[in-house]
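Lab notes, practical 5.
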Amino acid sequence: MMELMDATLLGSLVASTLRVATPLILCALAGVMCERAGVVDLGLEGKMLMTAFIAASVGATTGSAALALAAALAVGVALSMLHGYACVSHTGDQVVMGMAITMTAAGLTVVLAIAWFSLGGQTPPLPESVRFARLFDGWADAAGAVPVIGGVLRFAALALLGHTAFVYGAFALVVGTWWLLYRTRFGLRLRAAGENPAMLDAAGVSVSRLRYQALALNGVLAALAGAYLVLAQNPGFIPHMTAGRGYMALAALIFGKWHPVGALWACLLFGFLDAVAMRLQGVSLPPALGDGEVPVQAIQALPYVMTVVLLAGFIGSARAPRALGVPYVKER
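Output from the prediction step:
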């Protein structure tokens, strides 16, 4: 019995880590794609927020998960194209443009939600027909009934099964992004656009087109992260529901040295800390530290404190792409 209880606790902790880390993974991959091409994207937070709102709005209005996801993808790509128009075509400041997208999304989502639904900035709860169902759900009980190795099988089933397609897709996209960047001609050129765009231009390849293509992929991945929040994790949209995840994803890609696999491990670390923080709420302090419970504010701040620690400790040692944030002007 104790073995099954331990397997249940550990399995549920790993499962929570994977679910919480999924939007971070998708958002970090979005950042890897565009920053490898030389475009800084501080608008990841805003893209997630806006696409989450659009997915929830379309889903609540039409009752269709496919339309909700398609609308989120369209908005995500549109925001990335806007970013490209300002920063690639017109050499605008990439940091300012990214922050403008985030600040605009933070205010616009609330205003539109109030105007459309009159629910204080929220959308109506999404019906189950719109939300993505969990796959392989309920297999843990059957696995735990197996003699001798039931505890191990129950842990594996709880940890790895019962997730939505978004979770499995996020890990598949890590592999796909790595393959695209490091095993294809397109990936080689994309990385060259972030390292030495003049050399790429001299070879007859359009730097602007490559950066637009990278931004389009960035918009798709950021939209998947935003759609996940309302179609799989939460029952609807609430104001500022991203809660800094876009900035955590940026910290993860810096910690991961702009590599998809490195960013994955950083996102899993953040997800683990968040999952632990949720389970620490209501836990009593040891007698040596006094009576009472662990302060909720301290628990909720744990993932964000780790973000600051990682940035402070690793931003100096991580080498960004050499042309990151530098507009490229073709010589005439």
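Observations recorded by the TA: The CA atoms of residues 75 and 315 lie 31 Å apart. Residues 2-241 form one domain.
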